């Protein structure tokens, strides 16, 4: 039926209806595919599934740029429906170094950038013009101990970072080794370490200022702190294993020394022996209590037991035993059901996440509980020291007189100090690095 004067004839109405129906069937799939995360790559003529990007780092005021475009979102940032390809990601914050990396967005996957803190831009602050031979920070981060070689003697100085004062504790001939207790601000200082003639270990309670000496007629072969809040110092000679109580000065014999080596973990004595009948190296737990053979073996890696006589305990953590052969520069990780060998000369156990670091002059290995050792980094420049810088295990690398920070999970490195560094330590809780060079001892907030 046609209405007089109407411009929409029957043919036009049918044509319009068919056009709307066609548009519906054309547009609906596009909308559905778009909602499902698909995008059309006009350059290559392909229909692609999209990916997502999640950024969650500190500080929360950081700004994110993706291929130079600022993302107007606050942390944590979630970007969906990104076309899969490589992007340049840059993260910036006032007073911090930029963090920049090329990332790849994959289809139907989320790329996570998380668990790190941007490094602060700051200038190092001179603590003293003296050059330190050794430097160490206490468990609380309040006290800095360092040794200075001057006039053929070694001076021990302890600085209170809270009160900003420092005290000369004593002067001795020879090198000093500094070992802080794990859970309080008590320092053990051994002298005569290098000549195998160590007969004195001084224990200093830096809070009270009390100092007591452990003196032995026989050389003290090893010493370590207990794990309690008011710890004992355990030490061993060729004849016995002893406990020293700092506040009373009392020395107690724990047991005669009849073992290849010993270690104390959580106040439990672990020992190592060679079984003469089977030639197995036996590691025993709770030797003075309910003795249990933790593990026994004739080889570790390619090393037969007969070559392990010089292997000693280094530490024990969560029933992971670390042994070391100093002559061969080999560490052995021993668990109840596994063992691994790592060619390395130094190690450090991070207080965060039970993460172990091992390094030779040019290789950095890591180890996590219930996993296998993993080669993290190779360097053309010799590693001097490696330390965790925060709970996310950003690492400080000391090489060639420089200190750089490595974000290990992203393989990004940032130089922090280029000033002929000789020794260094770090307080990851306060985010402070202490280092020494020929100009003095410095403090750097990061």
Named CATH topology of the domain at 46-117: Immunoglobulin-like
- Alpha carbon gyration radius: 31 Å
How many β-strand stretches? 43
Mean pLDDT: 89
Low-confidence stretches at least 5 residues in length (pLDDT < 50)? Answer: none
Task: Work out the strand percent.
Answer: over 45%
Total helices: the number is: 1
Secondary structure layout plus pairing:
Blueprint: H1 10-35, E1 38-41, E2 46-49, E3 51-58, E4 63-66, E5 69-71, E6 77-82, E7 86-92, E8 99-104, E9 110-117, E10 125-128, E11 134-137, E12 143-150, E13 153-160, E14 165-172, E15 176-180, E16 186-191, E17 200-205, E18 210-215, E19 222-225, E20 233-236, E21 240-245, E22 250-256, E23 261-265, E24 268-274, E25 281-285, E26 292-297, E27 299-300, E28 303-304, E29 312-317, E30 320-325, E31 330-335, E32 338-343, E33 346-349, E34 355-359, E35 363-368, E36 374-378, E37 383-388, E38 395-399, E39 402-407, E40 412-418, E41 423-427, E42 432-437, E43 440-445
Parallel strand pairs: 3-9
Antiparallel strand pairs: 1-2, 3-6, 4-5, 4-7, 7-8, 10-43, 11-12, 12-13, 13-14, 15-16, 16-17, 17-18, 19-20, 20-21, 21-22, 23-24, 24-25, 25-26, 27-28, 29-30, 30-31, 31-32, 33-34, 34-35, 35-36, 37-38, 38-39, 39-40, 41-42, 42-43
Notes on the structure:
It is a single chain. The model has no long low-confidence stretch (mean pLDDT 89). The chain is elongated and about 120 Å long. Helices cover 6% and strands 53% of the residues. Among the domains are: 10-36; 46-117, Immunoglobulins (Immunoglobulin-like, Sandwich). The protein has one helix and 43 strands. The protein has 446 residues and is mostly beta strands. The strands form twelve sheets. A four-stranded antiparallel β-sheet has the order 5-4-7-8, with no helix packed on it.
